[in-house]
Design goal:
hydrolase activity, alpha+beta, 4-stranded antiparallel beta sheet, 21% helix, 237 residues, PxpB
C-alpha cells in the first residue's frame, strides 16, 4: 500500500483535520500511527492535542507559538516520506466476556438477523482480534473493528438512557465495550468485567489506538469471580 495523500481541512482557528483516507480499513492504522508519532515530534510543546479516528487526525496547536502557515509547514515537513509504523508495537488485550441475553439483549436479534445461532454469533465475535481505531464518545470508549459483515447491525433507532459499564456491543461493523455507565444505541451482546477507564490507569484508558483486542467468552461464574456485575439489562430499557 502506497503512502496516503494527506489533505488538510480547517477545523478551527487553531485546528486542522488531516484526512489520510476516505474509507475505514484495518490497513489504515500503521499509517495513522506513523503520522501521529511524526507530528508529535515535529510540533513538540506547540501541540495541544492530536486525536486519531478511522481516517483522519484532528490536530490542535498553540496559536501563541505557531500561526496557520507555520502549522501547515510543520505538517508537510513531518509527513514527508512517511512510512507505516510497526503495529506490533501496540498492546494486545484479552477481555473476558459473558455473552448472555440478560446483559446482551440484542444477542438474539443479531442471531435472527444473521441466520446464525446465538452460539455461532458468540463464536464469530470472539474469534477475531479487533484493531482499536480511535477513542471517543465517552471517556475510554474505544472504537474497534472490523466485525464480520454477517454480524453488522445498525444502531438502535432509540438509544438507551443507561447502559452498564462493561457492556459489549456492535454498531455497523464496529464493536466496543462501554467503559462507564452512559447512554448508548449499540446492539448489546454481552458484558466484560474488565475495568476500562480510571484515573489510576496509564493514559486513563486501558485501550489505546493501535492496540488489538480479543473478546474471550466466559461463563457467568467466571464473570462474577472476576468482579462482573450481572444485573440484567432489559431489551426495552
Amino acid at each position: 500500500m502506497k503512502a496516503p495523500s494527506v489533505r488538510l481541512e480547517v477545523a478551527g482557528i487553531d485546528s486542522l483535520i488531516l484526512r489520510l483516507f476516505d474509507h475505514i480499513d484495518e490497513a489504515n492504522m500503521p499509517w495513522m500511527l506513523a503520522a501521529r508519532t511524526r507530528l508529535q515530534a515535529a510540533f513538540g510543546d506547540a501541540l495541544l492535542d492530536l486525536v486519531p479516528s478511522y481516517t483522519t487526525l484532528l490536530l490542535h496547536y498553540d496559536l501563541c507559538q505557531l500561526d496557520s502557515a507555520q502549522a501547515r509547514a510543520k505538517v508537510a515537513e513531518a509527513l514527508e516520506g512517511l512510512q507505516p509504523a510497526d503495529v506490533q508495537n501496540g498492546r494486545e488485550h484479552q477481555l473476558p466476556t459473558w455473552y448472555d441475553r440478560s446483559v446482551g439483549p440484542e444477542l438474539q436479534l443479531l442471531a435472527r438477523r444473521s441466520g446464525l445461532s446465538e452460539a455461532e454469533v458468540i463464536a464469530r465475535h470472539s474469534g477475531h482480534a479487533y484493531q482499536v481505531f480511535a477513542l471517543g464518545f465517552a471517556p475510554g470508549f474505544a472504537f474497534m473493528g472490523l466485525v464480520e459483515e454477517i454480524l453488522a447491525a445498525p444502531r438502535l433507532s432509540t438509544p438507551r438512557q443507561r447502559i452498564a459499564a462493561g457492556s459489549v456491543g456492535i454498531a455497523e461493523r464496529q464493536t466496543a465495550a462501554y467503559p462507564v455507565v452512559s447512554p448508548g444505541g449499540w446492539n448489546l451482546i454481552g458484558r466484560t468485567p474488565t475495568r476500562l477507564f480510571g484515573s489510576d490507569i496509564e493514559g486513563y484508558s486501558l485501550l489505546q489506538p493501535g492496540d488489538r483486542v480479543r473478546f474471550v467468552a466466559v461463563e457467568r461464574a467466571e464473570f462474577i469471580r472476576l468482579g462482573g456485575d450481572d444485573s440484567p439489562l432489559e431489551a426495552s430499557q
